[in-house]
Amino acid sequence: MTTEAELLISVVVPAYNYAETLPRAVRSVLSELTERHELIVIDDGSTDHTPQVLDQLHQEFPGAFRSVRKVNGGLASVRNRGVEEGHGDYLVFLDADDEMVPGALRALEKHLQQHPETRMVIGGYWSVWPDGKRRKQLPAALPDSPHARLRGYLLDKTIGIANGASAMHRDLFSRGLYPVHFRNAEDMPVFSQALANFPCSILPEPLAFIHKHGDSLRHNVKYDREVGVALVDEVFSSARLPEEFSYLRRSFMAQRCLSLFRGYLQAGDHASAKEMYCQALRMDWRAVLRFSYTRKALRLWLRG
Questions:
Q1: How far is CA 237 from the centre of its chain?
Q2: 123-142 burial by CB neighbour count: b if 16+ within 10 A, else e?
Q3: Which is nearest to 166 in space by CA: 127, 192, 117, 203?
Q4: Taking the chain, what is the end-to-end CA distance rounded to the nearest angstrom?
Q5: Radius of gyration of the chain from Cα atoms?
Q6: CA angle 290-260-286, nearest 5°?
Q7: pTM of the full predicted structure?
Q8: Alpha-carbon gap, residue 298 to 201, rounded angstroms
């Protein structure tokens, strides 16, 4: 019988008011589990019928998975609880509206046997839209240099990482957990510290179906405003990144300001959009060379 110490992968499903899609996510994982894996669902104080759905799933699959209910604290707090609750060496965080691709855990286990040194596995995924359209997205090769990896992730956008399609060894959380004061972008500091400080590897096949929808936190201007440029301080905190990476800070600040500029502009908050664009230029004048943003800024100022 497998002991907790021998568990390889803990799949953690954060659940907050996704009662309709949670069974799909749970079933996609349960069909993959072996004695070396476990599934934990963490209900973040849902106000819909998520508790009833979990009760039904426990009756349907007795003893097949664990569930925990906690006071609502946001996605970062749920993922931190998953690090605490999980017994596996590696953690996969699968959102409650996504699905695990058949064969994903077998592929991960084989990859980890071949790359025992890796502390983060970056896999591919299928993007799935409400109209049924799908697009396969596979990760590019990783640079050998931690500096090139971090730059590729934060600035060049040549490295994309999706929760549900990545596995993280619990060792990398020694540099820091998810920032609970963030309601979105909470994964960027963790992914950054992994790329900068630990061996990482690519698994070039889809591991998850990532369902796209308009109410994603990543596109929510309210939460963007709350996080703001504090994300830069969090990513470059001394606990997460050594001082040698600080030369990327100003460029990332400019990038973050441009991202906020675009979000505020789309939301119709023109004053905040102008402020963010000006701040981006103060951080790095080369922001003006980002012509897609510059065109939008010019149109904004011409409106008065």
A1: 19
A2: bbbbbbeeeeeeeeeebeeb
A3: 203
A4: 70
A5: 20
A6: 25
A7: 0.93
A8: 42
> Per DSSP, what are the bridge partners of residue 210?
127
Q: Which of 195, 2, 182, 190 is nearest to 83 (CA)?
A: 190
Q: Cβ(14)–Cβ(95) under 8 Å?
A: yes
Site of tokens 């957990």? 177
Please count the CA atoms within 13 angstroms of the CA of 28 that sit on its side-chain side.
Answer: 23
pLDDT band at 1 (very low <50, low <70, confident <90, very high): very low
Over the stretch 50-105, which tens digit does the pLDDT of each residue have? 999 999 999 999 999 999 999 999 999 999 999 999 999 999 999 999 999 999 99
Take residue 85 and report the two structure tokens written for it: 């609750």
Question: Is the pLDDT score of 271 beyond 90?
Answer: yes
Separation of alpha carbons 290 and 280, rounded Å:
11
Question: Cβ distance 123 to 203 under 8 Å?
Answer: yes
* Mean pLDDT computed over every residue of the chain: 94
Taking residues 39-45, what's their average pLDDT? 98
**Residue 65 φ/ψ, nearest 5 degrees:** -155, 165
* 291-303 and 249-267 helices, crossing angle to 10°: 50
Distant-in-sequence, close-in-space partners of 12: CB < 8 Å, separation ≥ 6 = 40, 41, 42, 78, 79, 82, 85, 86, 91, 92, 93, 94
Q: State the Cα torsion 276-278-282-285 to the nearest 10°.
A: 110
**Predicted pLDDT at 230:** 95
- Domain 4-219: assigned CATH number: 3.90.550.10
